[in-house]
């Protein structure tokens, strides 16, 4: 099974519960470096827009989440400046 990755800023969502939850869902947690807030700023902006796309959904499924994420990545990489 392919593992997904969850990226968080150091100091947030780094509790034991978070790591157990990510392990149970086969997600590899990835924590940014301390003291370098600009290293992942472009991705944080993109994730903010992606989260906004999910905000209105009441009961999203994994299949729908993957579809919306794929659509968002395609838009972000190929369409947003056209």
In short:
The chain is α+β, with helices and mostly antiparallel strands and 82 residues long.
What does this structure look like?
Helix 1 links the parallel strand 1 and strand 2 (27-31). The chain is α+β, with helices and mostly antiparallel strands. It is globular and about 40 Å long. 50% of the residues lie in helices and 12% in strands. The N and C termini lie far apart (36 Å). It has three helices and two strands. It has two domains: 1-35, no CATH class; 40-82, no CATH class. A two-stranded parallel sheet has the order 1-2.
Keywords:
single chain; 82 residues; alpha+beta; 2 domains; two-stranded parallel ribbon; 3 helices; 2 strands; 50% helix; 12% strand
Overall radius of gyration = 14 Å
Gross geometry: globular
Give the assembly state of these chains.
single chain
Mean pLDDT: 75
What is the N-to-C succession of helices and strands?
EHEHH
In total, how many domains does the architecture comprise? 2
* Number of separate strands: 2
Unreliable residue stretches: none
Largest sheet: 2 strands, parallel
How helix-rich are the residues, as a percent range? 40-55%
Structural class: alpha+beta
- Give the N-terminus to C-terminus distance in angstroms: 36 Å
Strand percentage: 5-15%
H/I helix tally = 3
Main β-sheet, spatial strand arrangement? 1-2
